[in-house]
Structure formats: C-alpha cells, structure tokens
Amino acid sequence: MGDPRVQPATTTPPARDRPPAGGDRPTNLSRFVLPLLWATLPFVAGPAFADALGPQVRAVQVVASAGLWLAWVVALGAALVPRTVSLTVVRIIMPAAVPAAIWAAVATPTFDVAAVVALASATIVTVAVLAPFTGDLMVNGSAYGDERRMPLRAPAGLMVGPLELAWLVCVAGASAGPLLLASSAWVLGGLALVVGWSAAYVAGRALHGLSERWIVFVPAGFVLHDQMTIADPMLIPRRMVASMGPAPADTRATDFTAGSLGLALQVELNDPVEVAPIPRRTRPGQRPTLESVEVTAFLCTPTRPGAVLREARARRLPA
After folding, report:
1. Is 21 a domain residue?
2. What angle (nearest 5°) sits at the alpha carbon of residue 209, between those of residues 99 and 245?
3. How many Å apart are CA 265 and CA 316, to the nearest integer?
4. Domain co-membership, 120 together with 70
5. pLDDT (tens digit, 9 = 90+) per residue, 60-88?
C-alpha cells in the first residue's frame, strides 16, 4: 500500500453534488433560539426568586434584584449580538441561573411548582448556551468576509476542575462583594469587592482564551488557530492538504488536541509545514523554550467534526 499522503483525492464530490460554501451555517431563525429562551427566564423563574428574596432584609432584596436584572440584560444583549466575546459572556452568566434557582428553591419554605419551573428553565438555558452549535454561531459573528470559524473542544484536563473553578471565581467574585455590603458586613464586603472583582476579571480573561480556539476556513485553505497548542496560527494552503478525516486509533500524527475528548480529525499534508508547538510544563513556573518542528500530519478536535468535514468538502478540500 502506498503512502496515503500522496494518494489522489477521490472523496471530493463533483461540483453539482457539493453543498454550497457556508451551507451548514446557522440560519437567521436559529440565531434567536438562545435569546428567546433567556428572555423568558424572568417570567418563568421570577416568582421563585421573588419568594426566596421575600424574607431577606430590604437592602439585600434591592441589591440582589438589581444584580439579577443587570446580569439578565447583559447576557441578553450578548446573545443578540453574536461575537467571540459574547460567547464568553453568555457562558459565564447564563449557567449561573442554575445555582441561583437551586438557592431559590432551598431558601423558599416550600419546594413548590415555581421552584421546579425555575430550575427546569435555568437548566434548559444552560444546555442551550453550552451546546456546540451556540459556540459555532457566536465565533462566526466575528468572522471576516468569506471566512468560517469552527471552534475547538476545551482540553479534558481543564474540564475536570480548573474550568469550573474559574467560572465559580467569576460568578462568586462579582456577586459576593455587593451582597455582603448589603448585609452590612462592611469590612468583609469591601475586601470581597476589591479582591473578588479583580479575581473575576483574571478568571474571565482565562475563560475567554478558550473561546478563541478554532479552525478557520479561508479562500486559500484553512488555519489552525489554537494558542494552547501552537505559538502562531498555522496556515495550510488548499494544495498542501492530502486528506482530512477521522483519525485512526493507531495514528502517529502530531497531536494538537491538547488532550480534548471527542472525535479527533487528522489532516495529512503533501509537504511538511514548520510549526512551533507549545511545550508542556513539567514543573510550576517553568518557561520551556519554543522549538520549531516539521509536521506532515496533525490532529485537532473541533466541537462539530461533521460540520468541519462538510465545510471542507464545500471548499474543495479532500475530506
């Protein structure tokens, strides 16, 4: 058997059978699914929050209500304006509705229908905002011209603790200070306001880095843009792509998945490409030196691998 990198591309369908470029992109209707779900939240979950805040002192009622409305408005605006930064905003704010609904259910003397409806609606919104389709829609709002961005999965190592911790720092750091001050805990509240907001900003910046990892299809070919695995974006011209598809189990291709779970795609190249992988740290504080290597095949893990292959075929890439 010959080298698969030099075999002719036989999987590209003829022009009449290929889907048009961008045919797998979100429709105008689908853009409003998440905003509509979020817009209804105050009406379906509001009674549960009102019952939970009823026994609280007036200052806490005012601050908590103002904070909830502010978070709702900010997240709704971000959902209506798809951008990469909007993805970070909605994925920080909207999932916070679930622990808020749980608190409302616990704080209410009786676990009634209002608490169940609030928790169910918050869960539905969270599932929608964390769905791969939402990430695809949001990051493409920042795309330029004939460009299609396909998000990459978060590393598995971050999914089992660090990611959730960063999110908790954002939510708790932003809300703890005002609520403590409303409860007349002046010293602790002031400290939480300064430290918490600073920590929330740092954690939010870190989470935003996960929103900026993607494959970008451009007229000349495609680009792997992942600051967690390679120092600079890697441009692969169309003529250099030999094949693109699911990675075999025994692959020896260079791994740019960052340990992400899910189906990995393998890209075989006709010619080697020089790239500088981000080296792994073996101890805290270490700053490994970047070294360029030649890559003839590599792996990546998009959130929607099927959509990536459909887009590749639409752009006349051998997928």
Report:
1. no
2. 105
3. 17
4. yes
5. 999 999 999 999 999 999 999 999 999 99
Task: List 244's β-bridge partners, or say none.
Answer: 267
- Residue 20 forms part of a structural domain: no
Do 184 and 249 lie in a common domain? no
What does the H/E/C string look like for the chain? CCCHHHCCCCCCCCCCCCCCCCCCCCCCCHHHHHHHHHHCHHHHHHHHHHHHHCCCCHHHHHHHHHHHHHHHHHHHHHHHCCCHHHHHHHHHHHHHHHHHHHHHHHHCCCCCHHHHHHHHHHHHHHHHHHCHHHHHHHHHCCCCCCCEEEEECCCHHHHCCHHHHHHHHHHHHHHHHHHHHHCCCHHHHHHHHHHHHHHHHHHHHHHHHHHCCEEEEECCEEEEECCCCECCCEEEEHHHEEEEEECCCCCCCEECCCCCCCCCEEEEEEEEEEECECCCCCCCCCCCCCCCEEEEEEEECECCHHHHHHHHHHCCCCC
Q: What is the pLDDT of residues 224-240, one digit of tens each?
A: 999 999 999 999 999 99
Domain boundary pick from 211, 238, 257: 211
Q: Say whether both 206 and 225 belong to one domain.
A: no
Distance separating alpha carbons of residues 209 and 311, to the nearest angstrom: 24
Does the reported pTM lie above 0.90?
A: no
Q: Please count the structural domains in the chain.
A: 2
CA-nearest of 76, 23, 68 to 46 is: 68
Residue 89: give the domain boundaries: 30-211
Residue 184 and residue 218 share a domain: no
Judgement on whether residues 38 and 185 belong to the same structural domain of the protein: yes
